[in-house]
Amino acid sequence: MPDNSANNDRSAVSLKTVFSLPVIVAALGYFVDIYDLVLFSIVRVPSLKGIGISGPELIDKGVMLLNMQMIGMLLGGILWGILGDRKGRLKIMFGSIFIYSLANLANGMVTSIEAYAVLRFIAGVGLAGELGAGITLVSEVLHKSIRGYGTMIVASVGVSGAILANFVAKGFDWRTAFYIGGVLGLMLLILRLSVAESGMFKGMEGRSVSRGNFLALFTSRDRFGRFLHSILIGLPSWFVVGVLITFSPEFAKVLNIQGPVSAGNAVMYCYMGLVAGDLASGLLSQLFRSRKKVILLFLVLTVAAVGAYFSASGATAATFYVICGLLGFGIGYWAIFVTVAAEQFGTNLRATVATTVPNFVRGMTVPITMLFQVVRKPLGIENGALVVGVICLAIALFSLSRLQETFHKDLDYFEEYL
Question: Can you count the helices (H) and strands (E) in the chain?
Fold first, then answer.
C-alpha cells in the first residue's frame, strides 16, 4: 500500500503556513482599513449634520471630504510603496495603521468642516498602505504553490470590514463608530509586534540594488506596460462600486424597483458578495493554477451581473439587493488582481507596485464617475452607465491579455534599472 503519511504531513504544514501570523495580521489590517474606508460613506450625512452642515451642502461638502480622502490615498500609495521597498514591509504596516487609527479617533472629535477635511486626508494617507504591504508580505512569506490561499484570506477577511461598518453605523452614534475603528487599529498594532519581516526583503540588505524607485516604472516601456495593465484590470471593480452601488437608489427609481433601496444596504450586500468572490477566486486560482484564467472568469461573471442589474425592471428590493451581491461576487477578484500586480515585479519594486496599484485603481473612480456624469445627460442614467461599463470592461479584458501568467513565478529576484 502507498504511504500517504508524507503527503498528509506536507498538507498539514502547508495549511498551518497559510494560517500563519503574517497572514492573519495582514488580513486583520485590511479588515480595519475597509471598515474605515466604508464607514465614512455610511456616516457621511449624520456626521455632517452633527457639525452643522445641512441642505445642499450635505452633498457638496461630502464630495469634498471624499475627494480629500482620495487624494490622501493616492499620495499615500506612492509614499508607503516607496518606503515599503526601502525600509521594509512591516514598517509601513505599522506606520499606516498607526496614522489612520489616530485619524479615526480624531474624526470622532471634529467640530468643523475644515478639521474634518484635514483628518480625512490624513486617514486616506494611512489607509493607502495596508493592502499593498499585506499582499507583498504574504506573497513573499508563503511558497508560490500556496500564496494564492494567503492573499485570498487577506482579501476575504478584509472586505468583511464593510459589513461590520454597516452594523456599527446603525447601532452607534457616528462619533462612537469612528472611535471603534481607531481602537481596533491600535489593538492590531500590539499583535504586529510578533510578526517577522519578509526574508526576500532582508535578502536585499547590504546589496547594491536600487530600491523603491517609483520613477523607474516610467523609464522602461516594459515596466510601464506591466504597471499600467496591472492597474487597468481593476477598472470594473470601481465602476461597479462607484456607479452602480453608490447610485443604487437613483437606479432603483429608474428601474421601478418595488420598495425602498438604500445605498448603505446596497454597499453591505455588494461587500458580502465580495467576501464570497474573493474566497472563490482564491480557491479557483489554486485549482486552475492560473491567475489570468480566474480573472477572465470573474470579468465574465461581472458582465452577467451588470446585465441582470439592468434587466431587473419592476423587481422587488430584495431581488435588487441579491443582484448587488452578485455584482460584488463578480468583482471579487480584488485579491487576485493585487497579487498579480505584486508578482509582476522584482523584490526591489514589489511593495511600490502592490501599494500604488490598488490606490490608483481607487483613484480611477474620479474619471469613471466624471465620464458617467457626462454621458448620462444625453443618453440617460441607464444607457450612460452601460456605456461606461462597456468601456471599463473592454479595457480590463485588453489589459489582462497583455499581462503574463504569474502563478508559478519565483518572486526572489530584482528589477534591473539605473
Answer: 20, 0
Say which residues have a Cβ less than 8 Å from residue 308's Cβ, sequence separation at least 6. 323, 326
- CATH code of 18-189, in short, is 1.20.1250.20
- What confidence category does residue 409 fall into, taking pLDDT thresholds of 50, 70 and 90? confident
Q: What is the pTM of this model?
A: 0.81
The domain segmentation of the chain, as residue ranges, is 18-189, 215-418
* 3 state DSSP class of 316: strand
For residues 108 and 337, what is the distance between their CA atoms, to the nearest angstrom?
33
What does CATH list as the number for 215-418? 1.20.1250.20
At 260, the amino acid letter reads P
Mean pLDDT value of segment 143-168 = 82
Alpha-carbon span 244 to 238, nearest angstrom: 9
* Secondary structure string (H, E, C) spanning 83-131: HHHHHCHHHHHHHHHHHHHHHHHHHCCCCCHHHHHHHHHHHHHHHCCHH
Domains 18-189 and 215-418 agree in fold: yes
* Cβ-proximal residues to 166 (8 Å cutoff; 6+ apart), any chain: 38, 42, 264, 265, 267, 268
Task: For residue 250, give the nearest of 165, 320, 326, 170 by alpha carbon.
Answer: 320
